[in-house]
Amino acid sequence: MDSTITLLYPVLLVLLLIVPVLLIMFLHKKQSPKPKLPPGPPKLPLIGNLHQVGKLPHHSLWQLSQQHGPLLYLQLGQAPTIIISSSDLARQVLRTHDLESCSRPSLFSSTKLSYGCSDVAFIPHGDQWRELKKICVVELFGTKNNSTLQSIREEEVESMVTSISAAAAASMDCAIDLSDIFLSCANNITLRAAFGKRYQITGKYEWSKLHMMLTEVQAALGSFFMADYIPCFAWIDILTGARARLDKIFYDLDAFYELIIDEHLQQIMQSHGQDEDILHTLLRLQKETDHLTNDNIKGVLMDIFVAGSDTSSASLEWTMAELMRNPETMKKAQDEVRKVIGMKGKVEESDLQQLQYLKWVLKESMRLHPPAPLLVHRETTQHFKINGYEIQPKTRVIVNAWAIGRETSSWERPLEFYPERFKDSSIDMKGHDFQLIPFGAGRRICPGIDLGIQTVELALANLLYTFDWKCPDGSQDINLDETPGVTVHKKYPLFLVPIKYELK
Ligand code: HEM
């Protein structure tokens, strides 16, 4: 009996302490009503709704939005998230509430790749982002550098066409891996724009090694799922070797930077009369403004690697795949470019303005296959309301550009590849028309939008002008399955047979 009483004392004591705390919590909850969050499915402990995000998140999020509405609330691991799947809501978030929602979440992979958010793509919204974005728009990708960038694009596209011609001449009916050729061409353009000829001057670095680094960097983004969503399980990323792979990339990159970010090399470049490349501009601005750190420079270069080439090559790949599935459209696009260019032998950038149908083809391809279907995740900094729902600060914002491109209220027969829908339409991809936003919109819109469009249009026009194309098995049945990732590529590389077109 005595021992039972002695046991009861501590229990009573704990209850005495706990009951008032629970009571206070209960009353507090009653007094402050829960914010009215957007609708969404029930969540599980710890993982929230992560189990409902499949391998291809733009598809599964779109399906969830069909059930719960175009403004969807999910708890992805520990992260409160809203998913936007209509052009009307995209306008509200990316225009009306752009300022409140234009920061970026601090994710493990992006923080690491951006040298601790020293770049422009992953840095949170603020003065430093504003300054770096201005440098990108005005100094790096603007009209100042246009003629250098234009000649790099034209040379690289020409060399791609030459190598395809050589393959076509070497063996008839030989299918070539266009996915690989496009990525290589886009990587060449990015690397040359970034580093000019300095890699040749060092004489110590192999181009192929740079390519490999680029591909690894592109793959690293988004591969730290645990650290980004359920931090207490971050050790899984270590066990899978993902972190070790990323550390290796940085080790290699640093060795490369040591060679090329070098005063002495800078002088040699100038004495050789080399054009100013992107690295050169950044180093010059560092001297002039005293604001840019070395990490800023490396971070911006990393953005260009990650954001610049993979997206352009994916877009080319999807456009060619759709054209092969739609031979009438292919013929119209070829007729246009062959008529405009005539016997000139190649398409130059100054010709692109006349290729109206080709421009519609690209828009149509970007509508159905935006290379970054969920854009780049944003994060809110302040509270705001949409359609009566409360959006709290530090909520992640995912805009499903892929779903918006298939919205039945904006697009007639949305699943059809039909470029003519853009005839007599003023819709462009530059962030004004929210039913077509493959480059995003608002403050965070892609600063490389013109470079991206020019690269894809130029490459496409030359491929359609110079060759007829056929599938290796003679069918038009191109598989459109996708690979998961921030940038979505075709699951199966695009193998096509080029047939040199004889100019008449
Ligand atoms: C077809 C080609 C391209 C596509 C589809 C594309 C798409 C995108 C998208 C969807 C975003 C996120 C926008 C948002 O958050 O609302 C973005 C951001 C960005 N892109 Fe592109 N991009 C392309 C080409 C390029 C090129 C060629 C460059 C540079 C050489 C570039 C550099 C950037 C940078 C630096 C950002 C971050 C901007 C910021 O956070 O303020 N992109 N891009």
TrEMBL record:
Residues passing through the membrane, by range: 6-27
Coiled-coil intervals: none
Cofactor needs: heme
One MF annotation (Gene Ontology) recorded for this entry: oxidoreductase activity, acting on paired donors, with incorporation or reduction of molecular oxygen
PROSITE patterns reported in the protein's UniProt record: CYTOCHROME_P450
Keyword Transmembrane: yes
Positions annotated to bind heme: C446
Keywords tagged on the record: Heme, Iron, Membrane, Metal-binding, Monooxygenase, Oxidoreductase, Transmembrane, Transmembrane helix
Pfam families: p450
Protein family membership: Belongs to the cytochrome P450 family.
Protein name in the entry: Cytochrome P450 71A1-like
